[in-house]
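=== RUN LOG ===
request id: a7f3
mode: sequence -> structure
chains: 1
length: 296
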Amino acid sequence: MEWKQKFLDRYEKLTDLDEFVDISSKPLRKSLRVNTLKTNVKEIKSRFKDHNLEKIPWCKEGFWLKGQVIGNTLEHFLGYIYLQEAASMIPPIVLDPKDEIVLDMCASPGSKTTQLSSLMKNKGLIVANDININRLKPLSINLQRCGVSNVIMTKMEGRFFKQEFDKILVDAPCSGIGTIRKSPNTPLIWNPNAIKRIAGIQRQLLFTAFNILKQKGTLVYSTCTLEPEENEGVINSLLEKYDDAKLEKINLDIKRSPAILEFENKKYNEEIKKCLRIWPQDNDTEGFFVAKITKE
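=== RESULT ===
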């Protein structure tokens, strides 16, 4: 894998560079989530007993697996399982939706939408939105495959939403630095100017989501990037803009690294310590960032 020197210089300031480069050069572990709308954990463990399923600590329906790829199995086509990266399972669990009105602002391809529906037992209502008609196609296919019936799909820019919601997930578009293990070209196309542009879009989406969140509602912001400007920096902007935005501590059985509270001469709000920052070397997963916000 090739790395830009500027990229390495930047990340040396953020984490143990040797550990980060080492784990990023290794294949990502395969993982699945049991779709409890159609089956149960016991049934899937029986069907895949030859794959040495290993429990993912933070998701009771999630498992790492060994052996052959299972994307071509009957269980996958029938929607009994969803092939989903282990860290990607975190945001819906943190949001913890019930029989409520929920917005998944950036929904495609549907891994988190189907997980939300499963957690809600197909009750309540999920508005699954994406900006691109071509991205709605895989979303639609996955919703149908998984037996989801409490979702309506919309195609619009997230910043145009006006309806209020009980809970909102903003799994924001990002630079994807956390996905290096499956996208090895990421360090080569990394561009700090692009990150500033993306962070602007993320702030806009997050501000819109907070404005349409009901009082006492919960908002989860997540990315699969490790860039402070797209993570802690975006959350810091929300806290500066809205006095009634409150960060909640995320209690999960997972190894985590401290949130970045100072970077490139910028100091962030101490409350950001409550955010969940996961480096690939922490749990042998993708890198991920999750923030849980309530509206006071």
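=== NOTES ===
The two ends are 46 Å apart (CA to CA).
The chain has eleven helices and 14 strands.
=== END ===
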